[in-house]
Amino acid sequence: MANATQNAAPRVDLVYLADLVDKGSRVLDVGCGEGELLALLRDTRGVDGRGIELSQSGVNTSVARGLSVIQGDADTDLVDYPDASFDYVILSQTLQATRRPKFVLEQLLRVGKRAIVSVPNFGHWRVRAQLALGGRMPVTEKLVYSWFDTPNIHFCTIADFLDLVTAIGARIEKSAVLSADGRPLRMALPWWAQNLLGEQAVFLLKR
């Protein structure tokens, strides 16, 4: 019997990420989890995909999907990859869980000709409201952990991420702010409004 997880429709935000990747590209997915995005890229974009994942269970599930995934840590293992060895390096919903976000982002742009990064937005209005009115660390669809057991150690807003992109001298080729269900906001909004309304954001970056 096929695995139900493998038969489920892919998340909307992962479909958006996959559409940013040219067909036949060489891709490294950092923090690939159970390989859902890598499998989608293989099946719809025909990529030569590789992945690294910290959890052994994630590696096992990815390998069971027929994916080339090894156990590794974004904070320490990206330095082992040669410059420009991939067309795209992807970091999806993982940057906030790294110990050195600036270093990791710089490594993504060294290893890949382009980097695709998605981040949850700690500046979303629901997060602000929970903190302001409830006086406790927020829990939302995208920030699902309580403060005492969260793997997220560097929360950031969309505005914070844009500052980091500027600090490392990267260029944004394409970006989108996504709703809770992973769909891009269609409204033409200034960044301050996107920072208020978007639950997550996706960026295609290049040096």
Give the strand order, joined by hyphens, for the main sheet.
Answer: 3-2-1-4-5-7-6
SSE order, one letter for each helix or strand: HHEHEHEHEHEHHEHE
The CATH topology assignment is: Rossmann fold
Note the beta-strand portion. 15-25%
Helix content: 25-40%
Largest sheet: 7 strands, mixed
DSSP E strands, number: 7
Mean pLDDT: 90
CATH architectural category = 3-Layer(aba) Sandwich
Number of helices: 9
What distance separates the N and C termini? 45 Å
* Overall geometric form: globular
Short structural summary:
With 207 residues, the chain is an alpha/beta fold.
Detailed description of the structure:
The protein has about 210 residues and is α/β, with parallel strands linked by helices. The chain has one domain (about 5-120, about 155-205): Vaccinia Virus protein VP39 (Rossmann fold). It is built from nine helices and seven strands, in the order ααβαβαβαβαβααβαβ. The protein has helices at about 5, 10-20, 35-45, 55-65, 75, 100-110, 125-135, 160-165, 190-195; strands at about 25-30, 50-55, 70, 85-90, 110-120, 170-180, 200-205. It has a seven-stranded mixed β-sheet with strand order 3-2-1-4-5-7-6, sandwiched between helices. α3 (about 35-45) links the parallel β1 and β2 (about 50-55). α2 packs across α3 (about 35-45). The longest helix is centred in the middle third of the chain and has 11 residues, at about 100-110. The radius of gyration is 17 Å and the shape is globular.
